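Annex B. Sample input.
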Amino acid sequence: MFSKGGKMGILYQQNYRVPFYESDTFKQMKISSLLAVALQISGEQSEALGRSDVWVAENYNNFWAVIEYELNIQRLPRFDEAIIIETEAISYNKFFCYRNFWFKNQEGKTLVKITSTWVLMNRENRKIERVADEIVAPYESEKISKIIRPHKFKKAASFEEAEAVVYPVRFSDLDMNGHVNNAKYYDWASDMVDFDFRKTHQPKQIFIKYNHEILYGTDIHAQMEFESNVSHHNLNDDSAQIEISWEKVSENQQ
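Annex B, continued. Sample output.
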């Protein structure tokens, strides 16, 4: 379903019911599932507008890649809950495209808002390409000159004393472009957080940045540092950086 968005972009909307396999042990939608479904919904909009991944590959030899996410969470959707997912390509400049997602309940209240930054990459040399107006024209998003300043993360040097957990990159971790599915990074990072802590806390705000591709045949070295209720995560010397602000949940939420 299409409608005019709050700015210039076209708003795309889908009804969705949270399935069992996307729910965690607390009967809430997994963060990695939120990210995967968001990608699916954005892909559906692109295909409906005649700008599918196949079209971008055939006409420009490019593919889309997300380089940054920010998630703001009021509460996570629950197992079997009927929700509404909306997405809008908000704006773009010569190298970056900015897209928002909203996960809402049936009354229209936003449960989770995701802001994301995308780039076009060449399929062969894996370098960032300029954004051609023809590619993004159907989304009717605003063309801007400024670059939105990214979130500042702890650098790899801050994790020198932190112990690393090693995860092998498996074939099942790869996406259609041959690199690690971006939803996997959050799982690798958050799996380091103590289970008892997870039982009483949920993510309130999450920042994720992908700096370098991690390919099949390599290992993930994940490191974590805690400051108050914020966990800082570094994967493979700044290849991916994640910051999670945790909030203690009330007894009736547990």
